[in-house]
Specification:
Elements lengths: L1 H25 L14 H28 L19 H24 L2
InterPro entries: DUF202 (IPR003807)
Organism: Nocardiopsis sinuspersici
GO cellular component, one term: endomembrane system
Amino acid sequence: MQPERTLLAWQRTIALLVVVGLLFLRGSLVPGGDNVPEAPLVVRVATMAVLLVIGLVLGLHLWFRWRACEHGTRVPETGRPPLYLARPWAMAVLCAGVLALVGVLVLTVLLGL
């Protein structure tokens, strides 16, 4: 049961990353409102593209790792259950993507792009 929960948690995180990117791509919720600075369309599309690539890379990594570990039951090399579903680099990539998104949002507000 535990491996399935870990996989579902990763899937929810990736889905949420894409949803936040889509909200940023959409722009202002009030058409024509100048209260909140909005990034140019090129910046929003580039940010969404990076988030989609991160989501794709992490999703494929989890899928391949899930299949290699026999659905989270055992690691073929050791025969024991896996200590973690995703490799540590996956968490680093996720953190770097979120940090980059935060940086773009902060620069958008501070510089008034």
